[in-house]
Amino acid sequence: MTNNISAIVVLLAMFCAATTIDAQSMFRGDPMHSGTYAGPAPRQFHRVKWKFPTGDRVMSSPVFKDNVIYFGGDDGNVYALDAATGRQLWKRATNGPAPATPAIANDTVYIGSYDGKFYALNAKTGALKWKFTTDGERRFEAKGVHGWQPKNQTIADPFDVFLSSPVATNGTVYFGSGDGNVYALDSATGDLRWKFKTGDVVHASPAFADGVLFFGSWDSYFYAVDAATGKEKWRFHGGEDPMIHNQVGFQSSPAVVNGTVYTGCRDSNLYALDAASGKEKWRFFNDLSWVITSPAVADGKVFFATSDSSLYHVVDANSGKSIIRQQGEAYMFSSPAVAADVVFIGVLNGTLEARDAKTGELLWDYQVEKSMQNNAWVLTGDRKFNEPFLFHSNWREAPLLANDQQIRIGGIYSSPLVVNGVVYFGSADGFVYAVE
Amino acid sequence: MIAVGARARLIVTLIIGAALPCLAEDAISGRWEGTAHIPDDELNIIVDLTQENGGWVGSIIIPGLGLKGVPLTDIRVQPPDVNFAVKGALGIQLNLRIDANNKLVGNFEQGGNRAPASLQKTGPPQVEYPLRNTPVAKEIEGEWKGDYIMLGYPRHVLIKFANHPDGATADFVIVGRKQNVLPVDLVTQEGDLVTVDSHETGFTFEGRLRDGKLTGAIHQGAIETPLVLVRAK
After folding, report:
1. Whole-angstrom Cα distance, residue A391 to residue A399?
2. What was the pLDDT predicted at A14?
3. What is the pLDDT of residues A209-267, one digit of tens each?
4. Model pTM?
5. What would the mean pLDDT of A407-434 be, rounded to a whole number?
């Protein structure tokens, strides 16, 4: 009897471990993008377990499979590291920055690059299995974007920092592209199954639930399409901003939980949409501040943060009513990761924050060295962005330079990954960190 | 003889002693150029300081921050100490002291950060004076209201002009989801063009009186939106 119970416990443990591993092998943990991670989470900061240097900033979010950490680098490489030591197992070059989060399935690493190609690599060796050529990558762009001068000149948006992260499920890999398409490829061969054309850049990551693919585009629409055929089921119209193109576009990736789609939008809303019909259930307005973060959904609550207003929010998943509202130090593009009773989120001032999931209270934070150096006074003494030092010129190049300065202090755009009590994240300082 | 000599020395000393602060203060008046040594950068600073009507006035130029001829505030000159500030969003404080080499050395503070700064005199002062409020015409006085759309959201504007002996003032309120009372730096009327500027917030209204309406635009940074103000009832 005791032996039988032991065997059941062992089997259950193996099942849980397998579930945990599968739930950490793509952006936001799983195809629904719940942003929740099984296992323990550190309520206190003890140490940097390791940090791994790359050749450029790391906007990609690490994923985990079989004790290996995978991520893309803006230096153009896709990396595989030993999760325990941070030692490099392999790297594979693409021909452009790779600020996307890879998906791991069938011993294959799937990731797109700014070279306009989508790669399938052997997860053990990094060897190329196949690559697919899209119609080409580009950033969101518009005339006089964000009110920058001259208003009649087209400017690429420097805050369009991510590429679409793929979701791999049921033998198909799905991803969005700067060419406006969402692609569905045979995950074994790379053959095109279908593509769905939107009106502008798709850099959000699609979420998959119940045979439907959900994603937003910079054309101001959010779409639900049949994952098998690519046929549109419904579309939802977000805000538009024909004047300065600031309050438009879905850069946030959706989470689909219990028949509801949750997504942020640059129109300053967090939306809850009925997954079957696309009908709006509720919206949470953020006073014109973007919602770039992809929401996490756990225990009937939605966790997200804002950019300019730098607010950390927890709202009721059914009603959208505010539960927690905490003022952060700086803009947040990183998406919250919920593990046990802790929420982890990166901040663009170069800090990783750990907050109590129930109260929102800051438990601990870790500031990367570049941020502490605070070169050129990008930050104020209390770690906010020093806006008068950053945005002081009327020339259109000035905001681009300001954005570059913000990046150079090691901003954390990457979304944290939590595995067995260790938090993994990338930084714009060029390192991937493992802290515990 | 000795007593007379000692008295004479005392008098000379007293005269020189009394004159020293004035001489030292004269030494402060001028154009000062130098740098603040912030990490990984050097910020060029040009300060003009002079005495006027028994007080100190001054302005500052910082090319790296887009500042040109911005007035100094809270100027305190008590040789060898020289302190002044730049108010507004930037919020700069300079705490300096004249050293043995006639340089102003000390700290440049902004946003909770502090860096060493050093300035040396390069010539006579070239203080820039801020634009002053002008009176507005009688028919402009009083309260005006109007509406516009910003980023898809409606905004209601209230501007109330009042004349005073030293120029007009204006209350400038924008109501969206919240009521925002904007600090006004400048109110002018040049011909029929009326301007209300809130430099700190980046909002400016410019309009001309046409058929009993103030017809113009509201600017928020580079964004310009047409706006017609009518008399508030």
Report:
1. 6
2. 39
3. 999 999 999 999 999 999 999 999 999 999 999 989 999 999 999 999 999 999 999 99
4. 0.87
5. 96
Q: Does B90 reach chain A within 8 Å, measured CB to CB?
A: yes
Any idea which residue has 């998959």 for tokens?
A208
Which stretch of DSSP H or E encloses residue A134? none
Q: Are B227 and B218 in contact (CB under 8 A)?
A: yes
Spell out which residues of chain A touch residue B89, defining contact as CB-CB under 8 Å.
Answer: 387-388
Nearest alpha carbon to residue A250 among A322, A326, A162: A162
Instruction: Determine whether A66 is exposed, middle or buried from the number of CB atoms within 10 Å of its CB (0-12, 13-18, 19+).
Output: exposed
Sign of the torsion angle spanned by Cα atoms A222, A226, A230, A234? negative
Would the pLDDT of B2 be above 90? no
Q: Are A293 and A283 in contact (CB under 8 A)?
A: no
Identify all chain B residues contacting A239, using CB atoms and an 8 Å cutoff. Answer: 152
Asked if B110 is an interface residue toward chain A (Cβ–Cβ < 8 A), one would say yes
Instruction: Kindly report the nearest CA distance between residue B115 and chain A, in angstroms.
Output: 10
Share of chain A above pLDDT 70, in %: 94
Q: What angle do CA A132, A138, A142 make, to 5 degrees?
A: 155
Q: Cβ atoms within 10 A of the Cβ of B5, count?
A: 9
Taking the C-alpha atoms of residue B30 and residue B52, their distance in angstroms, rounded to an integer, is 13
**Using CA atoms, how far apart are residues A248 and A421, in angstroms rounded to an integer?**
37
Phi-psi group of A24: left, alpha or beta (phi > 0 → left; psi -120 to 50 → alpha; rest → beta): alpha
Structure tokens at B83: 């302190």
A395 touches chain B (CB under 8 A): no
φ, ψ of residue A111 in degrees (nearest 5): -160, 150
B16 at interface of A, judged by CB pairs closer than 8 A: no
**Choice between B11 and A436, residue whose per-residue pLDDT is larger:** A436
State how far Cα A219 lies from the chain centre: 19
Cβ of A381 under 8 Å from any chain B Cβ?
Answer: yes
Shortest Cα distance, chain B CAs vs residue A377, angstroms: 7
Contact A330, A383 (CB under 8 A): yes
Which chain A residues have a beta carbon less than 8 Å from that of B90?
388
CA dihedral sign of residues B227, B231, B232, B233: negative
* DSSP type of residue B181: E
Those residues whose C-beta lies under 8 Å from the C-beta of residue A369, and which sit 6 or more positions away, are A410, A429
A147 has a chain B CB within 8 A of its CB: yes
Distance of CA B62 to the CA centre of its chain: 13
Residue numbers in A near B111 (CB within 8 A)? 377, 380-381, 384, 386, 388-389
User: How far does the CA of residue B117 sit from the closest CA of chain A (Å)?
Assistant: 15
Under a CB-based contact definition with an 8 Å cutoff, are residues A312 and A342 in contact?
A: no
- The average pLDDT across B192-211 equals 93
Instruction: Say which residues have a Cβ less than 8 Å from residue B1's Cβ, sequence separation at least 6.
Output: none
How close B196 gets to chain A, by Cα (Å)?
21
CA A42 to chain centre: 21
